[in-house]
Amino acid sequence: MSVQVTLSLPDNIVENAKKFGIATRQKMEIVLADALEMALPMAEDLPDFFLQPPTSTLPDTELMRLADSKMDEAQNRRLGDLQAKGKASGLSQDERYELSALLRICQIGQLRKSEALAEAVQRGLREPMAA
């Protein structure tokens, strides 16, 4: 099933889609639809994040656990492997999607961690970082 949608996009995104379309011999509309398809499933891959309560509502112990959190070791290792391979020899389409998803996981994790750190400082559980 397909639905037609009208979007207003910044000029640079349209130009990049056109260039990519020319390089891959695809219509710009297909390039944009593929890009959206690759980006949107990430939300489905991360349902726990979207169900997380705001950091301001977390008990101190949970807040500190989040403030001290790190990316899953296996995911972090895979992220590094994909980045290295991408620099050395390029990535397949599946690998590019996986890299994009891992980068998004990392980004969201860092956002949650920074929110937790700020809340911990506000509650007096952590000292502010020196400037």
Explain what this protein looks like in three dimensions.
By secondary structure, the protein is mainly alpha-helical. The protein folds into two domains: about 10-40; about 55-125. The chain has helices at about 10-25, 30-40, 40-45, 45-50, 60-65, 75-90, 95-125. The model has no long low-confidence stretch (mean pLDDT about 85).
Fold blueprint:
Blueprint: H1 11-24, H2 28-39, H3 41-45, H4 47-51, H5 60-67, H6 73-88, H7 93-123
Helix pairs in contact: 1-2, 5-7, 6-7
* Strand residue content: under 5%
For the secondary structure, the number of strands is 0
Number of domains: 2
**Tally of helical runs:** 7
Rg, please?
19 Å
Order of helices and strands: HHHHHHH
Largest sheet: none
What spatial form do the alpha-carbon principal axes imply? elongated
Helix-residue proportion:
55-70%
Q: Mean pLDDT across all residues, rounded?
A: 87
What's a quick, concise take on this entry?
The protein has 131 residues and is mainly alpha-helical. The protein has helices spanning 11-24, 28-39, 41-45, 47-51, 60-67, 73-88, 93-123.
